[in-house]
Amino acid sequence: MKTVIKIENLWKEYRLGVIGHKMLTHDLQSWWARIRGNEDPNSKIDFMSQDQHKMSKANGRFYALQGVDLEIQQGEILGIIGKNGAGKSTLLKILSRVTAPSQGLIKVKGRIASLLEVGTGFHPELTGRENVFLNGAILGMQRFEITRKLDEIIEFAGISRHIDTPVKRYSSGMHVRLAFAVAAHLDPEILIIDEVLAVGDADFQKKCLGKMESISGEGRTILFVSHQMNAIEKLCSRGIVLEQGNINFESEQIRDVIGHYLSGGGDDEQLSAEWINDNSIKSSRYFEPQEFFITDEKGARLTLPTKNSDDIYVNIKFRIKEIDPALSFGYELFNSEHKHVFICNQTDGSQSSWPEIKVGDNHVRSKIPRHLLNEGNYYIKMTALLYNRVWLVHPGKDSVKLDISIRGGLSDSPYWVKKRDGELAPIYLWEQA
Protein backbone atom coordinates (compact mmCIF):
# COMPACT_ATOMS: atom_id res chain seq x y z
CA MET A 1 0.00 0.00 0.00
CA LYS A 2 1.20 3.52 -0.85
CA THR A 3 1.23 6.06 1.99
CA VAL A 4 -0.45 9.28 0.83
CA ILE A 5 -0.56 11.17 4.17
CA LYS A 6 2.07 10.91 6.88
CA ILE A 7 1.76 12.95 10.07
CA GLU A 8 4.54 13.04 12.65
CA ASN A 9 4.36 14.71 16.08
CA LEU A 10 1.67 17.19 15.05
CA TRP A 11 0.82 19.94 17.54
CA LYS A 12 -1.59 22.84 17.30
CA GLU A 13 -1.48 25.52 19.97
CA TYR A 14 -3.91 28.36 20.49
CA ARG A 15 -3.10 31.32 22.71
CA LEU A 16 -6.20 32.06 24.73
CA GLY A 17 -7.42 35.63 24.65
CA VAL A 18 -5.34 36.64 21.64
CA ILE A 19 -7.35 38.61 19.09
CA GLY A 20 -6.69 37.77 15.47
CA HIS A 21 -9.67 36.50 13.52
CA LYS A 22 -8.40 37.97 10.21
CA MET A 23 -11.60 40.00 9.99
CA LEU A 24 -11.79 43.52 11.42
CA THR A 25 -15.42 43.17 12.51
CA HIS A 26 -14.65 39.99 14.48
CA ASP A 27 -11.56 41.56 16.05
CA LEU A 28 -13.63 44.56 17.17
CA GLN A 29 -16.32 42.27 18.60
CA SER A 30 -13.70 40.31 20.56
CA TRP A 31 -12.00 43.50 21.76
CA TRP A 32 -15.29 45.01 22.95
CA ALA A 33 -16.24 41.75 24.74
CA ARG A 34 -12.90 41.76 26.55
CA ILE A 35 -13.31 45.42 27.60
CA ARG A 36 -16.75 44.63 29.05
CA GLY A 37 -15.56 41.44 30.71
CA ASN A 38 -17.86 39.25 28.59
CA GLU A 39 -17.17 35.97 26.81
CA ASP A 40 -15.54 36.29 23.39
CA PRO A 41 -18.40 35.78 20.86
CA ASN A 42 -15.92 34.56 18.23
CA SER A 43 -14.08 32.09 20.40
CA LYS A 44 -14.25 28.53 19.07
CA ILE A 45 -12.29 27.00 21.91
CA ASP A 46 -14.91 25.07 23.78
CA PHE A 47 -15.72 21.77 25.50
CA MET A 48 -12.39 21.69 27.34
CA SER A 49 -11.87 19.21 30.12
CA GLN A 50 -11.30 20.36 33.68
CA ASP A 51 -7.58 19.62 33.39
CA GLN A 52 -7.37 21.58 30.14
CA HIS A 53 -9.11 24.54 31.76
CA LYS A 54 -6.58 24.46 34.58
CA MET A 55 -3.70 24.24 32.12
CA SER A 56 -5.11 27.02 29.99
CA LYS A 57 -5.66 29.28 32.95
CA ALA A 58 -2.14 28.66 34.15
CA ASN A 59 -0.27 29.47 30.94
CA GLY A 60 -2.86 31.04 28.62
CA ARG A 61 -2.45 28.29 26.02
CA PHE A 62 -4.70 25.57 24.66
CA TYR A 63 -3.45 22.57 22.70
CA ALA A 64 -6.02 21.38 20.18
CA LEU A 65 -3.62 18.67 18.94
CA GLN A 66 -0.88 17.09 21.00
CA GLY A 67 1.77 15.00 19.27
CA VAL A 68 -0.46 13.24 16.72
CA ASP A 69 1.21 10.52 14.62
CA LEU A 70 -0.77 8.99 11.76
CA GLU A 71 -0.27 7.29 8.41
CA ILE A 72 -3.05 7.00 5.82
CA GLN A 73 -2.83 4.69 2.82
CA GLN A 74 -4.03 5.19 -0.73
CA GLY A 75 -7.63 4.08 -1.23
CA GLU A 76 -8.33 4.02 2.49
CA ILE A 77 -11.51 5.50 3.99
CA LEU A 78 -10.50 6.70 7.45
CA GLY A 79 -13.26 7.46 9.93
CA ILE A 80 -12.32 10.11 12.49
CA ILE A 81 -14.61 10.26 15.51
CA GLY A 82 -14.51 11.96 18.88
CA LYS A 83 -16.38 14.37 21.09
CA ASN A 84 -16.74 18.07 20.31
CA GLY A 85 -13.42 19.75 21.01
CA ALA A 86 -11.39 16.57 20.56
CA GLY A 87 -9.38 18.07 17.68
CA LYS A 88 -11.09 16.52 14.65
CA SER A 89 -11.81 19.73 12.75
CA THR A 90 -8.43 21.17 13.66
CA LEU A 91 -6.71 18.13 12.16
CA LEU A 92 -8.71 18.42 8.94
CA LYS A 93 -8.09 22.18 8.69
CA ILE A 94 -4.35 21.65 9.00
CA LEU A 95 -4.41 18.96 6.31
CA SER A 96 -6.52 21.26 4.13
CA ARG A 97 -4.05 24.13 4.73
CA VAL A 98 -6.78 26.30 6.22
CA THR A 99 -4.61 26.74 9.31
CA ALA A 100 -0.97 26.00 10.05
CA PRO A 101 0.41 23.57 12.64
CA SER A 102 2.40 24.84 15.58
CA GLN A 103 4.82 21.94 15.34
CA GLY A 104 5.22 18.69 13.44
CA LEU A 105 5.70 17.26 9.99
CA ILE A 106 3.00 16.54 7.38
CA LYS A 107 3.72 14.81 4.07
CA VAL A 108 0.90 14.65 1.50
CA LYS A 109 1.04 12.99 -1.92
CA GLY A 110 -1.84 14.07 -4.11
CA ARG A 111 -4.39 16.80 -4.65
CA ILE A 112 -6.69 17.49 -1.68
CA ALA A 113 -10.33 18.58 -1.90
CA SER A 114 -11.98 19.58 1.38
CA LEU A 115 -15.57 19.90 2.54
CA LEU A 116 -15.38 21.50 5.96
CA GLU A 117 -17.75 24.17 7.29
CA VAL A 118 -20.79 25.17 5.23
CA GLY A 119 -19.74 27.75 2.65
CA THR A 120 -16.00 27.17 3.06
CA GLY A 121 -14.23 27.76 -0.26
CA PHE A 122 -17.16 29.61 -1.86
CA HIS A 123 -17.20 33.31 -2.72
CA PRO A 124 -20.65 34.55 -1.66
CA GLU A 125 -20.95 37.10 -4.46
CA LEU A 126 -20.20 34.59 -7.22
CA THR A 127 -22.81 32.26 -8.70
CA GLY A 128 -22.78 28.54 -8.16
CA ARG A 129 -21.38 28.02 -11.67
CA GLU A 130 -18.60 30.56 -11.09
CA ASN A 131 -17.71 28.94 -7.78
CA VAL A 132 -17.35 25.57 -9.48
CA PHE A 133 -14.70 27.06 -11.77
CA LEU A 134 -13.08 28.87 -8.84
CA ASN A 135 -12.76 25.67 -6.83
CA GLY A 136 -11.42 23.78 -9.80
CA ALA A 137 -8.79 26.46 -10.38
CA ILE A 138 -7.77 26.26 -6.72
CA LEU A 139 -7.27 22.51 -7.21
CA GLY A 140 -4.99 23.26 -10.16
CA MET A 141 -7.37 22.09 -12.88
CA GLN A 142 -7.57 23.53 -16.39
CA ARG A 143 -10.79 25.23 -17.50
CA PHE A 144 -11.56 22.52 -20.07
CA GLU A 145 -11.27 19.87 -17.34
CA ILE A 146 -13.79 21.70 -15.18
CA THR A 147 -16.13 22.28 -18.12
CA ARG A 148 -16.09 18.54 -18.87
CA LYS A 149 -17.29 17.83 -15.31
CA LEU A 150 -19.73 20.74 -14.97
CA ASP A 151 -22.95 19.03 -16.09
CA GLU A 152 -22.23 16.03 -13.85
CA ILE A 153 -21.62 18.32 -10.87
CA ILE A 154 -24.84 20.26 -11.41
CA GLU A 155 -26.90 17.09 -11.85
CA PHE A 156 -25.46 15.51 -8.69
CA ALA A 157 -26.07 18.65 -6.63
CA GLY A 158 -29.66 18.88 -7.91
CA ILE A 159 -29.65 22.68 -8.04
CA SER A 160 -29.73 23.30 -11.80
CA ARG A 161 -32.40 26.01 -11.43
CA HIS A 162 -30.14 27.99 -9.08
CA ILE A 163 -26.70 27.34 -10.55
CA ASP A 164 -26.49 30.93 -11.85
CA THR A 165 -27.68 32.47 -8.57
CA PRO A 166 -25.10 34.00 -6.18
CA VAL A 167 -24.34 31.45 -3.48
CA LYS A 168 -24.99 34.03 -0.74
CA ARG A 169 -28.67 33.32 -1.43
CA TYR A 170 -28.27 29.54 -1.05
CA SER A 171 -29.62 27.70 1.96
CA SER A 172 -27.16 25.65 4.02
CA GLY A 173 -28.47 22.49 2.35
CA MET A 174 -27.85 23.92 -1.13
CA HIS A 175 -24.36 24.99 -0.06
CA VAL A 176 -23.61 21.42 1.04
CA ARG A 177 -25.03 19.87 -2.12
CA LEU A 178 -22.91 22.01 -4.40
CA ALA A 179 -19.80 21.84 -2.19
CA PHE A 180 -19.87 18.04 -2.04
CA ALA A 181 -20.55 17.72 -5.76
CA VAL A 182 -17.59 19.98 -6.55
CA ALA A 183 -15.24 18.24 -4.10
CA ALA A 184 -16.19 14.73 -5.24
CA HIS A 185 -16.23 15.28 -9.01
CA LEU A 186 -13.10 17.33 -9.60
CA ASP A 187 -10.89 14.26 -9.31
CA PRO A 188 -8.99 14.88 -6.05
CA GLU A 189 -6.63 12.14 -4.90
CA ILE A 190 -7.63 12.89 -1.30
CA LEU A 191 -11.13 13.94 -0.18
CA ILE A 192 -11.61 15.44 3.30
CA ILE A 193 -15.17 15.63 4.63
CA ASP A 194 -16.25 17.06 7.97
CA GLU A 195 -19.59 16.64 9.77
CA VAL A 196 -21.10 19.10 7.30
CA LEU A 197 -22.95 16.24 5.51
CA ALA A 198 -25.38 16.13 8.44
CA VAL A 199 -26.96 19.30 6.98
CA GLY A 200 -28.19 17.47 3.87
CA ASP A 201 -31.43 15.52 3.59
CA ALA A 202 -31.52 11.72 3.85
CA ASP A 203 -31.68 11.13 0.10
CA PHE A 204 -28.67 13.33 -0.55
CA GLN A 205 -26.72 11.70 2.29
CA LYS A 206 -27.34 8.35 0.62
CA LYS A 207 -26.01 9.72 -2.69
CA CYS A 208 -22.93 11.10 -0.89
CA LEU A 209 -22.13 7.81 0.82
CA GLY A 210 -22.50 5.97 -2.47
CA LYS A 211 -20.22 8.47 -4.20
CA MET A 212 -17.59 8.13 -1.48
CA GLU A 213 -17.64 4.36 -1.84
CA SER A 214 -17.18 4.79 -5.58
CA ILE A 215 -14.29 7.22 -5.08
CA SER A 216 -12.52 4.83 -2.73
CA GLY A 217 -12.95 2.02 -5.24
CA GLU A 218 -11.05 4.15 -7.74
CA GLY A 219 -8.02 4.20 -5.43
CA ARG A 220 -8.63 7.63 -3.94
CA THR A 221 -8.40 8.35 -0.22
CA ILE A 222 -11.13 9.75 2.06
CA LEU A 223 -10.94 11.24 5.54
CA PHE A 224 -14.44 11.28 7.00
CA VAL A 225 -15.57 12.96 10.23
CA SER A 226 -19.09 12.20 11.41
CA HIS A 227 -21.18 11.65 14.54
CA GLN A 228 -23.41 9.26 12.57
CA MET A 229 -22.01 5.89 13.61
CA ASN A 230 -24.04 3.96 11.03
CA ALA A 231 -22.41 5.98 8.25
CA ILE A 232 -18.94 5.46 9.76
CA GLU A 233 -19.53 1.73 10.09
CA LYS A 234 -20.91 1.33 6.58
CA LEU A 235 -18.29 3.41 4.81
CA CYS A 236 -14.96 3.32 6.64
CA SER A 237 -12.22 0.70 6.38
CA ARG A 238 -10.32 2.02 9.43
CA GLY A 239 -11.05 4.41 12.26
CA ILE A 240 -9.44 6.52 14.93
CA VAL A 241 -10.85 8.08 18.09
CA LEU A 242 -9.53 11.52 19.00
CA GLU A 243 -9.68 12.65 22.60
CA GLN A 244 -8.24 15.93 23.89
CA GLY A 245 -5.98 16.27 20.88
CA ASN A 246 -4.59 12.73 21.00
CA ILE A 247 -5.36 9.55 19.11
CA ASN A 248 -6.95 7.57 21.93
CA PHE A 249 -7.74 4.44 19.90
CA GLU A 250 -7.36 3.15 16.34
CA SER A 251 -8.19 -0.08 14.57
CA GLU A 252 -9.09 -1.61 11.22
CA GLN A 253 -12.05 -3.21 13.01
CA ILE A 254 -14.43 -0.29 12.68
CA ARG A 255 -16.94 -1.77 15.15
CA ASP A 256 -14.23 -1.79 17.82
CA VAL A 257 -13.51 1.86 17.12
CA ILE A 258 -17.18 2.82 17.37
CA GLY A 259 -17.62 0.72 20.50
CA HIS A 260 -14.62 2.37 22.15
CA TYR A 261 -15.93 5.84 21.37
CA LEU A 262 -19.54 5.18 22.40
CA SER A 263 -18.44 3.53 25.63
CA GLY A 264 -16.70 6.75 26.65
CA GLY A 265 -13.22 5.49 25.88
CA GLY A 266 -13.24 2.23 27.76
CA ASP A 267 -16.25 2.36 30.08
CA ASP A 268 -17.67 -0.75 28.42
CA GLU A 269 -14.88 -2.70 30.10
CA GLN A 270 -16.88 -2.17 33.30
CA LEU A 271 -19.97 -3.76 31.78
CA SER A 272 -20.56 -7.36 32.66
CA ALA A 273 -21.89 -9.84 30.12
CA GLU A 274 -21.29 -12.96 32.22
CA TRP A 275 -21.70 -14.24 35.78
CA ILE A 276 -20.20 -17.37 37.34
CA ASN A 277 -21.63 -18.64 40.60
CA ASP A 278 -20.00 -16.78 43.45
CA ASN A 279 -22.55 -17.84 46.08
CA SER A 280 -24.39 -14.52 45.69
CA ILE A 281 -27.57 -16.46 44.88
CA LYS A 282 -29.03 -18.85 47.41
CA SER A 283 -29.24 -22.30 45.80
CA SER A 284 -32.20 -24.64 45.87
CA ARG A 285 -32.35 -28.35 45.14
CA TYR A 286 -34.81 -27.45 42.38
CA PHE A 287 -32.53 -24.87 40.74
CA GLU A 288 -28.82 -24.19 41.35
CA PRO A 289 -27.58 -21.51 38.90
CA GLN A 290 -23.97 -22.05 37.83
CA GLU A 291 -23.48 -19.51 35.02
CA PHE A 292 -25.46 -16.69 33.47
CA PHE A 293 -23.96 -15.16 30.32
CA ILE A 294 -24.56 -13.67 26.87
CA THR A 295 -23.22 -15.05 23.58
CA ASP A 296 -23.55 -14.62 19.86
CA GLU A 297 -25.20 -17.18 17.58
CA LYS A 298 -22.07 -19.36 17.50
CA GLY A 299 -21.82 -19.48 21.28
CA ALA A 300 -18.89 -17.06 21.62
CA ARG A 301 -19.06 -14.81 24.67
CA LEU A 302 -20.32 -11.42 23.61
CA THR A 303 -18.11 -8.34 23.57
CA LEU A 304 -20.00 -5.15 24.34
CA PRO A 305 -21.32 -3.09 22.70
CA THR A 306 -23.07 -5.20 20.08
CA LYS A 307 -25.19 -4.15 17.11
CA ASN A 308 -28.95 -4.03 16.80
CA SER A 309 -28.55 -6.20 13.69
CA ASP A 310 -26.98 -9.10 15.64
CA ASP A 311 -28.83 -11.86 17.49
CA ILE A 312 -28.14 -12.03 21.23
CA TYR A 313 -28.39 -15.28 23.17
CA VAL A 314 -29.06 -15.32 26.90
CA ASN A 315 -27.56 -18.49 28.43
CA ILE A 316 -28.20 -20.13 31.80
CA LYS A 317 -26.24 -23.09 33.11
CA PHE A 318 -27.77 -24.68 36.19
CA ARG A 319 -27.87 -27.86 38.22
CA ILE A 320 -30.99 -29.78 39.30
CA LYS A 321 -31.04 -32.17 42.22
CA GLU A 322 -34.78 -32.73 42.24
CA ILE A 323 -37.23 -32.01 39.43
CA ASP A 324 -40.35 -29.99 40.21
CA PRO A 325 -42.80 -29.59 37.29
CA ALA A 326 -43.67 -26.10 38.55
CA LEU A 327 -40.14 -24.80 37.82
CA SER A 328 -40.07 -21.70 35.64
CA PHE A 329 -36.97 -19.60 34.99
CA GLY A 330 -35.72 -16.91 32.63
CA TYR A 331 -34.86 -13.23 32.83
CA GLU A 332 -36.33 -9.76 33.00
CA LEU A 333 -34.94 -6.97 30.80
CA PHE A 334 -34.73 -3.36 31.98
CA ASN A 335 -33.64 -0.13 30.30
CA SER A 336 -31.00 2.24 31.68
CA GLU A 337 -33.70 4.02 33.69
CA HIS A 338 -34.60 0.72 35.42
CA LYS A 339 -37.96 0.41 33.66
CA HIS A 340 -39.24 -2.99 32.57
CA VAL A 341 -38.97 -3.67 28.86
CA PHE A 342 -40.08 -7.30 28.82
CA ILE A 343 -40.03 -10.62 30.71
CA CYS A 344 -38.91 -13.92 29.18
CA ASN A 345 -39.45 -17.38 30.73
CA GLN A 346 -38.72 -20.86 29.44
CA THR A 347 -42.40 -21.67 30.05
CA ASP A 348 -43.77 -18.92 27.81
CA GLY A 349 -44.56 -21.15 24.82
CA SER A 350 -46.62 -24.30 24.57
CA GLN A 351 -45.46 -27.05 26.92
CA SER A 352 -44.18 -29.12 24.02
CA SER A 353 -41.69 -26.33 23.20
CA TRP A 354 -40.13 -26.18 26.66
CA PRO A 355 -36.50 -27.37 26.87
CA GLU A 356 -36.07 -30.75 28.51
CA ILE A 357 -34.81 -30.43 32.07
CA LYS A 358 -32.95 -33.33 33.68
CA VAL A 359 -31.37 -34.11 37.02
CA GLY A 360 -27.78 -32.94 36.92
CA ASP A 361 -26.21 -30.21 34.77
CA ASN A 362 -28.33 -28.28 32.25
CA HIS A 363 -27.58 -25.55 29.71
CA VAL A 364 -30.34 -23.63 27.95
CA ARG A 365 -30.41 -20.41 25.97
CA SER A 366 -32.97 -17.96 24.58
CA LYS A 367 -32.57 -15.58 21.65
CA ILE A 368 -33.15 -11.85 21.71
CA PRO A 369 -33.72 -11.44 17.97
CA ARG A 370 -31.87 -8.93 15.88
CA HIS A 371 -33.58 -5.62 15.14
CA LEU A 372 -35.49 -5.62 18.41
CA LEU A 373 -33.70 -3.43 20.97
CA ASN A 374 -33.01 0.20 20.17
CA GLU A 375 -29.63 1.83 20.68
CA GLY A 376 -28.81 2.25 24.34
CA ASN A 377 -27.83 0.40 27.50
CA TYR A 378 -29.96 -2.31 29.08
CA TYR A 379 -29.55 -4.99 31.70
CA ILE A 380 -31.15 -8.34 32.43
CA LYS A 381 -31.78 -10.12 35.74
CA MET A 382 -32.13 -13.86 36.16
CA THR A 383 -35.42 -15.16 37.52
CA ALA A 384 -36.49 -18.58 38.82
CA LEU A 385 -39.56 -19.72 40.71
CA LEU A 386 -41.87 -22.61 41.42
CA TYR A 387 -44.90 -21.24 39.66
CA ASN A 388 -47.56 -19.81 41.98
CA ARG A 389 -45.62 -21.09 45.02
CA VAL A 390 -42.24 -19.55 45.78
CA TRP A 391 -39.45 -17.46 44.29
CA LEU A 392 -36.12 -19.24 43.92
CA VAL A 393 -34.31 -16.27 42.33
CA HIS A 394 -36.16 -12.99 42.76
CA PRO A 395 -35.19 -10.30 40.20
CA GLY A 396 -35.72 -7.49 42.69
CA LYS A 397 -33.84 -9.03 45.60
CA ASP A 398 -31.27 -11.75 45.15
CA SER A 399 -30.70 -11.91 41.38
CA VAL A 400 -27.59 -11.12 39.35
CA LYS A 401 -27.37 -8.54 36.58
CA LEU A 402 -25.89 -8.76 33.09
CA ASP A 403 -25.41 -5.71 30.88
CA ILE A 404 -26.43 -5.33 27.24
CA SER A 405 -25.16 -2.38 25.20
CA ILE A 406 -26.57 -1.77 21.70
CA ARG A 407 -24.74 0.50 19.27
CA GLY A 408 -25.41 0.80 15.55
CA GLY A 409 -26.87 -1.63 13.02
CA LEU A 410 -30.31 -0.08 13.32
CA SER A 411 -31.40 -0.30 9.71
CA ASP A 412 -30.30 -0.63 6.10
CA SER A 413 -32.71 2.17 5.22
CA PRO A 414 -31.19 5.44 3.95
CA TYR A 415 -33.63 7.34 6.18
CA TRP A 416 -33.38 5.68 9.61
CA VAL A 417 -29.69 5.70 10.49
CA LYS A 418 -29.96 7.29 13.93
CA LYS A 419 -31.48 6.07 17.18
CA ARG A 420 -35.26 6.03 17.04
CA ASP A 421 -37.68 7.03 19.77
CA GLY A 422 -38.76 4.28 22.11
CA GLU A 423 -37.09 1.24 23.63
CA LEU A 424 -37.50 -1.02 20.61
CA ALA A 425 -36.38 -0.61 17.00
CA PRO A 426 -37.87 -3.54 15.08
CA ILE A 427 -37.89 -3.82 11.31
CA TYR A 428 -41.25 -5.00 9.98
CA LEU A 429 -41.40 -5.12 6.20
CA TRP A 430 -44.34 -3.84 4.18
CA GLU A 431 -45.83 -5.43 1.11
CA GLN A 432 -48.37 -4.56 -1.55
CA ALA A 433 -51.88 -5.33 -0.25
Summarize the structure.
The chain is an alpha+beta fold and 433 residues long. It is 24% helix and 30% strand. The protein is built from 9 helices and 18 strands.
Describe the structure.
The longest helix has 16 residues, at 202-217. The chain has a six-stranded mixed sheet with strand order 5-6-7-3-8-9, with helices on both faces. Strands 13, 14, 16, 17 and 18 form a five-stranded antiparallel sheet that branches. The protein is built from nine helices and 18 strands. With 433 residues, it is α+β, with helices and mostly antiparallel strands. A hairpin with a 3-residue loop joins strand 16 and strand 17 (390-393). It is 24% helix and 30% strand. Helix 4 (128-138) crosses helix 5 (143-157). The protein has two domains: 3-262, P-loop containing nucleotide triphosphate hydrolases (Rossmann fold, 3-Layer(aba) Sandwich), CATH 3.40.50.300; 271-406, Coagulation Factor XIII, Chain A, domain 1 (Distorted Sandwich), CATH 2.70.50.
